[in-house]
Amino acid sequence: MDFVSDKLFDDQPFRILTIVDCHTREALATSAKTNFRAYQVVEELDRIIRLRGKPRSIRVDNGPEFAGRLLDQWAYLNKIELDFSRPGKPSDNAYIEAFNSRIRQECLNTAWFLSMADARQRINDWRIDYNQHRPHSALGNLTPNAFAEQLYPTRKFA
After folding, report:
1. Name one Pfam family in it (predicted).
2. pLDDT of residue 110 exceeding 50
3. pTM for this prediction
C-alpha cells in the first residue's frame, strides 16, 4: 500500500492510493482523491476485505496516513499485521514501487486529466486493463486475474 501523486490540467494536485496483492500482482485499488485522510484508507481496506477476505499482513510505507493511530487500531481489531518499510528503503516494498512506476509511465505521464472524475475513470480503466489483459512473466505469463482464479477458485462463490 502506497501513494502516487499527480496533477490535474490546472495544476490541482491529487493522490492515488495504490494497493497491490504481492502474491497475485493484482491491483486491488487505485483510489484517487485530492487529499487522503486515514479514515479513507481504512474505508478502502474495508471495501477490499469485503470482496477478498482478510490478509495476514499489509506492507505499508511510513506516510502519515499509514503511521497514525486509526490504521493501527483498525489493524489490531482485524488481527492484521502492519509491516512498515524502513525509511528511505523502497526495496522493502518492491512490488508496490514497481507497480507505481508502471502506473506513472503508462497512465499518469500519458494523460491530461480534466477533472477528478476524469482522473478516477482513466486510472480505474488502466487498473482493469492491468489486471485482466496484461500477462506477467512472474505469473507464468498469466494475467493477475487469471492467476488469482487458479489459486482461489472458490472466491467466485464467496
Report:
1. rve_3
2. yes
3. 0.89
